[in-house]
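Weekly modeling sync, notes
Attendees: AB, CL, MP (scribe)

Item 1: holo prediction request
CL wants a bound-state model with zinc ion before deciding which constructs to order. AB pointed out that an apo prediction alone won't tell us much about the pocket. Agreed to run with the ligand included and paste results into these notes for async review.

Input as submitted:
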Amino acid sequence: MATKKCKHCYCDIDKRASKCPKCGSSQGAKHYSLGKLIVLLVFGFFIYSQFTEESGQESNQAASIPQITERHQAFKDRLMIDTHTIKDAMWSNPYLLKVGVIDDGTIRNGFASYVCTELNQQGFKGQGISVQVIDIVKLTQENSWVQLGVARCG
Ligand SMILES: [Zn+2]
């Protein structure tokens, strides 16, 4: 056992003792402990942040948080090529496809349903997707989202 002299009574005590077992006086190890504590905290935080980063990535994959996939984008791109009525289209999220058309004064629920039919045919059936038809002129000129029609694809 490595020993040191007690600062108070000068007897031999355990080198790591923070208190003398004979006279009970403190051995001034507080500073050392604090330094050690800070190192532990920093190291602990580092480990913790590594862990939460990793577990965050894992849960992303495990819980499969809905994401706009390449399949979603490919559908949108193809739809815009096939359907010249659509001037622009975007997925707000994996459950909402917004299609911009020029307002002809009619309610475009039917057109939204048509897009749903296309979606369902392309394997998006049963995903709870909605299609919203937007006035593209209002959007580009006034930056306002005016809904002309909507459909739930189921
Ligand atoms: Zn002592």
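Recorded for review: DSSP finds four helices and six strands in the chain.
Action items: CL to compare against the apo run; MP to circulate these notes.
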